[in-house]
Amino acid sequence: MIIVYFCRLTNENFNRMTFLLHFWKSAVIALIILVASCVNIGSSDIPPHFEIPFADKIVHFMMYFVLTAVVSLDILRFRKTKYKLLRLLALATIIAVFFGGAMELVQHFLTVSRQGDILDFAANATGASMATFAYYFIIVSFKRKKQERQVYHELDARH
Predict the structure, then answer these.
(1) Which end of the chain has fewer surrounding CB within 10 Å, N or C?
(2) What is the pLDDT of residues 60-74, one digit of tens each?
(3) Which pTM was predicted?
(4) Under 8 Å between Cβ of 61 and 128
């Protein structure tokens, strides 16, 4: 709903089909996370010496890192606005963090085989935040390199 409201404000040609065409990747990843959060994974028969410490937290971090990166990409591709890049990336992070919190509440209150965990939520929020920082610095570095190339081309054209 937040994305729909934001898109209506920023794109005068907004309609549901356009929205679905632009945000289908985000929706698919969110659906995968929803299903993975609600089904019983079960205990595995991995020998103790092969177990990875905090593997569950690493998985949570990665799922929300990917979700935030894809939502960010979708928002930035869809936008037709003068909003600042950092504001749009913050929106993607907020969406992912709220979704992560909702999934932990769903696990705690609506599933029998799963339970919500504040440390899982912390891993979700950390993954979302790190994706935003990574995305921002990648975009900023590409813009700088592009500007540097333009300056070099202008200097070459003068000589």
Answers:
(1) C
(2) 999 999 999 999 888
(3) 0.76
(4) no
